[in-house]
Amino acid sequence: MALRITPPSANESGADAARRLGLRRKIFAITLAVFVAGAGGIWSLRYEFRSYAFLAQFLSPQASGVIVRVEKHEVQTQEVTLATANGAVRARLYIPRGIARPGGMLLVHGIHHLGIDEPRLVSFARAAASSGFTVLTPEIAALADYHVDGASIGTIGESAAWLEARLETGPVTIVGVSFAGGL
Predict the structure, then answer these.
(1) Taking a C-beta distance cutoff of 8 angstroms, is the pair 120, 126 a contact?
(2) Taking all residues of the chain, what is their mean pLDDT, rounded to a whole number?
């Protein structure tokens, strides 16, 4: 006895094709919705990723990982001397590579004999520069000598003006560590 297979009728193959097309459209729509939701979720977490990368690099300059590698920029340092009303001021500039017009940050050290060479300050400046800021750390002689004086306020203001003029990107952010925050 021979088995005979008959082809489906035209209506049956059309219905199957329509079902397959509908299934493909549903799969595509679900895939697209998952992709858009995932991209939206990542986009909404972008500041958290940047914050994580900054903190990880601040705590450990050798930090690595996917988020740190994505958010990190190489940093170049320059020793500079600022001419102020109180005389020449030694300073260090931390410049992120690969950013056309980075914002500026003036980072003023606290009361510490190492001044701008204090390891935690250097780590903070590098992490901020790696996150996309050009960071200037001026040496405030009075704070390095363990005292606070009014002349330091002028030095801080002139340092901020110098950085703003150099970058030409608008006002700079000023961060003062410890007693420098009060100045």
Answers:
(1) no
(2) 84
Q: Write out the two tokens for 76.
A: 């170049």
H or E stretch covering 89: strand 87-96
Domain boundaries, the chain: 73-181
SS3 72: coil
Bridge partners, 181 (sequence order): none
Structure tokens at 167: 């970058």
Nearest to 137 by CA among 160, 111, 166, 161: 160
Taking domain 73-181, whether its CATH number is 3.40.50.1820 is answered by: yes
The token pair that represents 71 in the structure block:
């958010």
Angstrom CA distances, 127 to 64, 130, 163, stand at 13, 5, 18
Q: What is the DSSP letter of 1?
A: -
pTM: 0.72
d(CA 9, CA 51): 63
Q: Which of 160, 181, 179, 182 is nearest to 171 (CA)?
A: 160
Please list the residues that pair with 175 across neighbouring strands.
107
Write out pLDDT tens, residues 61-81: 777 777 777 777 788 999 999
